[in-house]
Amino acid sequence: MVCASTEKSLDRVISLDEIAFQKFLKRGGRSPRAAKGIIATVLKYEQYLREVRNLKGLDKAKPADLEAFVSHIDEAKKDAAKKYLHGIHYYYEYTSNKEMRKLASNLRKQRIGQTPFPLKDFLKIDPAHIKKLETLGIRNANQMLTAGKTPKKRQELSAKTGIPPEAILELVKLSDLTRIFGVKSIRARLYYYAGVDTLDKMAKWHPEKLRIMLTDFVAKTGFNGIAPLPKEAEFTVEEAKKLPRIIEY
Question: Number of C-alpha atoms within 13 angstroms, CB side, residue 187?
Fold first, then answer.
């Protein structure tokens, strides 16, 4: 049996550097509330590694340890592992552990079919347009992509709803961008405003040049958000290259 003083000593040795990790999350655009939740999931993972896997630090974990933790969470509460893997992915991005970051990301993707993004959550979209589309049963990005797949369909949708063709096209482009894992409201709007509004355009960028361009764009325009970090930019460009093209422009 481990005495209380020994447990405290272990905690000091393996404790997550919460302040440094929180600063990393803030630089990545995570809100204080989101950062708090991410840190809580990583601390739970750390506790499991210590108490069940007998490891003295987060960075001692191997793929088998992460997979065992995920199985443990899956058994305890269905679908809960997605939340933990979300936080753990950020931790391994923070520590530059590519192998474990990729594993966390893949394990999470296995547990979720990416939820279609709600149209109402896009930034700077006229709410009246959203209501008109909802009357036709078009409420999320996947439905928008189906309804606006071709120029002809977009014209027909505009005629049915009274929404200007350019507004229909904007929603289609934003919806198409959300097919890239991790691209949601703020990111989709940043890419759109910066002129990287299609997968083809995104795929042509060198990740670092894209990041620099977006950093300059945010600084010049005062956009309420930050440019992607290097790894995020790299992932985004690679995803844009891989995704099948389903929209006709």
Answer: 23
Angle 177-180-186 (CA atoms, 0-180°, nearest 5)? 60
Interhelix angle for 127-134 vs 165-177, to 10°?
Answer: 80
Q: Which tokens sit at 171? A: 């929603």
> Any bridge partners for residue 216, and if so which?
none
Domain segments of the chain: what residues? 4-111, 119-242
41-89 per-position pLDDT tens digit: 999 999 999 999 999 889 999 999 998 898 888 877 766 888 899 999 9
Q: Are 193 and 221 in contact (CB under 8 A)?
A: yes
Cβ-proximal residues to 26 (8 Å cutoff; 6+ apart), any chain: 32, 35
pLDDT tens digits for 184-230?
A: 999 999 999 999 999 999 999 999 999 999 999 999 999 999 999 99
Alpha carbon distance 72, 65 (integer Å) = 10
